Input
Amino acid sequence: MTRSDWDDLPASEREAITNQYGQIKDIRPADSGNHADIASTVIGEHGTVFVKAARKLPEKDGPEVTSLRWEAKVNPFVNEFAPRLLRSTEVEGWLVLVFEHIPGRHPDYSPGSCDLDLVAKAVHLLQKTSPPAVVDRPVTMRWHGIGGDASPMSGQALLHTDINAKNVLITPEDAVYFVDWAFVSHGAPWVEMGQMIPWLLSAGHTPASAEKWLHQFPAWREADPTSIDQYARLHTAVWTRRHEMVSAEWIGPYLADVRRWASYRGVLE
Output
């Protein structure tokens, strides 16, 4: 999606942020993500925050606002893993979320990278965390309407579902944070690993080396291979459909990696 300019935000909200964090010295738009009209690091004289905002539609929430509402709802329960939500405001047709700023860099997912160990440690902790009651969205919803049985992916584990490198921050102290919780769900714990595979492949892994890396996670190691095959089948089907319907440039390469892994597992027709 095309980002809006900071000046598109209502003047009253820009003034409120300035009053709290000081005269704005710099605004740095995020280099990725597509779930908000504005997603920027805002550097003020007295503090730095990360602001996500989206325009509301006249009669109902659009997908961007819906995503931000979901993030705001879940955030208090995942502060061990996510930047804290400091403020949520609805003003003049906008929903605005202000998060604490986490100084950090995105990890390198390439084979042999030391960052993989740091990310793995954080994922291990996430896998041990029970979902709060507010996470009432089953991960199986993402395969609704595809026509296959998604029940093998059901479960009660807390799933971020989009741990790509752009959604991970590593601080100078090697602490790991996950951002963009727009698709947090509950489901079978191994689904989290499956969702990471295309991102590992795009970073240079082979399907075999990606699965070898995932073998360190008990949920993946102990999962029924036929369930993983079914996941690979449905994941390929849903992204094939999205590629036909959505023109975003990143979907084509992503689908190619999804298909490469599905082919490796022998589930493509």
Remarks:
- The first helix runs from residue 11 to 21.
